Every structure is written in C-alpha cells, then in structure tokens.
Amino acid sequence: MRWPVRGRAHERRVTEIGFYHLTRSTPEQALPALLGRTLDTGARAVVRCASAEQVRALDAALWRSTDPVWLPHGASGGPSPGRQPIWLTAGDDVPNGATFAFLLSGVGEVAALDGFARVFDLFDGGEEAQVAAARTRWTAAKAAGFTLAYWQQQQRGWKRAR
Asked: How far is CA 86 from the centre of its chain?
C-alpha cells in the first residue's frame, strides 16, 4: 500500500493513523465499541471493507450489536447515504462527510487519507500475512510523515504501545 505523501497544504489534516492489532476478536466484534465511541464524539465514520461480501457481513453484525445497543449506519447501495453517521463501503466513497476512517484488513490501496481527522487500521494479529502487511503500511505511513499510534488488543480493552 502506498500512502500519499503529505504536502504543506495537508500537514495538519490527518492527526493520527492508529494501527489496531486484533488479538482477541474479529473486526466485526471489535468495531461496535470503536464506532460507538466515534459517534459519542459527534464524528461520522466510513468503514472501508475489502469486498462487497464483507460489507454485507459487517452490516448484519452492526444491526445485531448489543454494545452499543444501536449503531445507525448505511451501506453501499443503501438509501440516504449522506444522512448516515456510519457508512460501510468496499470503495473510496465518503458520502456522509466522515472525519473518521476505519480500514479493514485486505482493503488494499486506499485513496488519500488527508481529509480525515483519524484513521483506524484494523488487522488480524493471528494472520502473519496481515501482520506483515500492517508493518509495510506502518513504514510507508511513517515515511509519508503521518503521526502514528499502535494499539494492541488486551484481555480488557486496548493498550497503546509507545
């Protein structure tokens, strides 16, 4: 994955790319809490999935979420995309004006991320290929000048490594 190099016009737009190392759950299990916190801040989110099948699976998982109880969202092909606080897509579309982006493993090349306040890069720590790909993305993002954070899933919650 190539990360766009930030120029002076974009230096402060992306405050942080957080790498979220999943060790105890799937993205479908981890995302509800992260998305709930996003909505609590008043922000909107776009979740970029690797495929239309992953969009459908995540859509169903978010409707079944019990913590938080309700995560209002829409998905590619659905109604009123501009009104959705959370938008699920397998593309680069951001019809809801999201300022938080969630990238799921396998997304591949992504469009410029400089319009987002925060980017969450979630990857499966049990899959060596995903860990290796996350390391490559980390190196590229660091070289492009982004502020980075690494979060590892623990028994209870997340721990930020320094």
From this structure: 11
Helix (H) or strand (E) holding 74: strand 74-75
Kindly report, residue by residue over 57-72, the tens digit of the pLDDT: 999 999 999 888 889 9
Task: From 14, 42, 41, select the one nearest 103 (Cα to Cα).
Answer: 14
Among positive and negative, which fits the CA dihedral 40, 42, 48, 53?
positive
Say which DSSP state 41 is in. T
Edge-to-edge, what's the strand order for the sheet holding 148-153? 74-75, 86-89, 45-48, 100-104, 118-124, 16-22, 148-153, 158-161
Q: What angle do CA 158, 94, 38 make, to 5 degrees?
A: 30
Can you list the domains of the chain with their CATH numbers? Answer: 25-155 (3.40.50.10110)
C-alpha distances out from residue 34 to 26, 40, 69, 107, 139, Å = 13, 10, 13, 18, 24
Output the pTM of the full model: 0.88
